[in-house]
Amino acid sequence: MRLQYLYLDFTKNGINQEGYRGYKQCELNFSIETNYTMEPCSLEKLHYCLKQKEKKENNKIETGFWGDERIYNISAIVGENGTGKTTLIHTIIRTLETLYGEKNQKPPFDFVCLLQDLEKHLYLIYSWENIEIEISSDFRCEKISYYNSDTPLTLFRKTKLIYFSNTISAADMERFYTIDHSNNKNIYTDFLYDCSLYASLVGAQEASNITSNNRLLEGALEDQLRTYFNYESYQEARYLFDRNQRNILIQMKNQGYPVPFPRELQLDILPSIERLKQVKDSIHEYCLSDGYLDWCYRYKEFSYQSQNTYFVLTELCLNCVVNFLLEVNLERNYSREHLMFPEEFTNPQSYIKMMKSAFVSNAVYKDYPQIKNYFQVCTKYIEFLWNNASHIQKYWKYDDDRCYIKLGDHLDPILQELMIRFVDLNRAVSMNSYFVIYHWGLSSGESILLHMFTKLRYLLQGNIYDEESSDFITEYSAQKAMLAQRKEFIANSLKNKEKMNCDSVILFFDEADLSLHPEWQRIFIATLAEYLPHLYQNPYYIGTDSGCRDIQIILTTHSPLILGDFPSDCVLYLKKDQNGFVTVEFNNSLQPFGQNLYTLLKDGFYLQNGTIGALAQKKIKSILEDVQIVKTFNWNTMSNKYYAERELDQWAENLKAHRRKTIKYLPQGIIRNKLEQEISVALSIIDHRLNPEQKEHKKQELRKDIARLQRQLYELENSEEGLQ
Questions:
Q1: Burial 337-369 (b: 16+ CB within 10 A, else e)
Q2: CA dihedral in degrees (586, 590, 591, 593; nearest 10)?
Q3: What is the DSSP-derived secondary structure letter of residue 23?
Q4: What pLDDT band is residue 347 in, cutting at 50, 70 and 90?
Q5: Are strands 159-165 and 192-196 parallel, antiparallel or unpaired?
Q6: Taking Cα atoms as reference points, which of 24, 33, 43 lies closest to residue 5?
Q7: Maximum distance among all alpha carbons in the chain?
Q8: What is the DSSP string of 459-503?
Q9: Which of 123, 227, 335, 465 has its CB surrounded by the most CB atoms within 10 Å?
Q10: So what's the pLDDT on residue 213?
Q11: 704-712 LR contacts (CB < 8 Å, sep 24+)
């Protein structure tokens, strides 16, 4: 489903004249062929007519303009600060969420929304009550009153909304707290896939089994942030080792796109002895006291003597055991007498026995199925590590308390299969206590793209990965996994808990350029247009009759480098009028596509005070003001010759100081040359005003300088001849 046109009325048909955050009414056009407008048909009654006007041939966006033909359109919302770009994009999302009709809640504004399905049928949905809307005779569409229909538009439920924002706003928080969490809805199958920073923070807490009560504990902010970053690093690891995604990244990298493609992975593993000590201190029991210090000494001796051959494996196993003890402690089922420490550090059964010994009896074990399930997960993890110990020792290099894993451009299939299984199994045993942290060594811009690509990837459902096994990885099993078919799809959940496969995506970016290097801003649109069709395929997988057939993008930006990829009819300009209300304008005269950067800055972003830095502008203005004073000064009013000479000398010094303090820092070009010319003219005026005695004095000073330089040159030349 494509969004063609949106009319928003924040005055509630004149009831609220103040509007909302500077908005009263606004019209937003997103069609590639047609512009729509809502016009009053009668002043006597509430009667409007929706009219269309076909765009001029040069303003139409041709199919396939953005690269892949499935990308319907990309629209940019720009404007000066304070015009409410974020407010507007949240309102658009709120309107589209309303159209799903699940809650039938009346939004705090009225809307008229025109949608087009993939067969180009038009649907007009409006929330106005007691208002008549006509359709002009030059086009046809189906009219639907939102409040008079149980299901405003069933077809729209096959569209997935995705929202990105790298800032935390009040609107993001409001959206989260208005979502119904009572049914434990899956964020990946909800109509809106919220990838805002706030939603990601909260989502990491929920995915890591941290309850809302724990999240609200005073002083828990540090734990929340640590959980967020650790969970994000896990998701990124899962993404980067995905076979299909890695192939996409390699292809785009070879084409010159700035994709996040790390060549090395670093693993930080938390010290297990320190974490085990924390468990001991937290439970205040004797079960970890007897023999604990002696066991710690033997473990350290083993680590030293093994020369790190098995250290990574034992650290991972002990951390897994610590997590299990923490989970058991929540149920207070520690055995107070028989907690067994691993005696054989290279035997996986020793770690499994320690976990088993944490139960009082088999009866208690049966009474807590969640602990039983977690025990099985931890057992599988430990067995996986030791079954594949030879692979880990081959590919993982331990040095200075950190593991280094060389990745390169093309992964060894065994290493790739090893990392896919490890990442998933390690996440399963981590719960809310992460003990492995992934570091990719990426720049901030690369990290932003990796975050975006990862979130977009996680939207896909189905058997994305093979069923993880703890068996030994062989070349055959690795090759077989590479050839396995993945049945991925995008889905929306319905009221009856059924899933509907989605055939289209509408993607929203707020502040799309945030934290990106200027060069990456310049190719952001091209990168996005290349990546999305590879990710959301049509069909989703071989043998299915459904797929992502349509992609639409709406973004806000402050970057002229991003705006330079947009035809004029794809840009909505927000501007405040004299009364402080925001209007939405089209600026067909600008033509941002391929436009000069300075023109985009001045006209596209309404920079009324120039396109250079404020400090540079201030200094240049000071030069021009001083030059103008010298040019227009009336020297005849200076009756005192002494003061006149001092005044002339002072102005000459000021102009020369401008050369030293400002002009020498300017790049070669028109501005610098013009300022040099203006200063030279002003200095010549000053020289002309000097009396003959002053001129003669200056000549003598110059002759002395010339004689001094000639003497120095003579001495230098003679000294060079002597050396020869």
A1: eebebbeebeebebbbebbbebbeeeeebeebe
A2: -100
A3: B
A4: very high
A5: parallel
A6: 33
A7: 115
A8: T-EE--SPPP--SPP-HHHHHHHHT----EE-EEE-TTS-EEE--
A9: 227
A10: 44
A11: none
CA gap 174, 212 in Å, rounded: 16
pLDDT of residue 169: 75
State the DSSP H helix or E strand holding residue 25, giving kind and residue range, or none if neither. strand 25-29
Are the C-beta atoms of residues 539 and 545 closer than 8 Å to each other? yes
pLDDT for 373 beyond 60: yes
d(CA 152, CA 578): 39
What is the rounded CA–CA span in Å between residue 78 and residue 76? Answer: 6
Q: Return the DSSP state at 208.
A: T
278 and 288 Cβ atoms separated by less than 8 Å: no
DSSP 20: B
Length of the chain: 724
> Per-residue pLDDT tens for 131-150?
888 898 888 898 888 877 65
218 — pLDDT class (breaks 50, 70, 90): very low
111 neighbors 7 (Cβ within 8 angstroms): yes
Residue 219 has pLDDT above 50, yes or no: no
Tokens representing 594 are 């391929």
**Residue 567: Cβ-neighbour burial (10 angstroms; 0-12, 13-18, 19+):** buried
Strands 34-42 and 47-54: antiparallel
Q: What's the CA gap between 546 and 548, in Å, rounded?
A: 7
Lowest mean pLDDT segment, chosen from 96-100, 139-143, 291-295, 692-696: 692-696
Is the whole-model pTM more than 0.70?
yes
In b/e form, how buried is each residue of 159-183, taking b as 16+ CB within 10 angstroms?
Answer: bbbbbbbbeebebbeebbeeeeeee
Cβ atoms 503, 544 nearer than 8 A: no
CA-to-CA dists, residue 618 to 600, 610, 623, angstroms: 22, 11, 9
Question: Token pair of 188, please?
Answer: 């990946």
Tell me the two tokens of residue 344: 């054989």
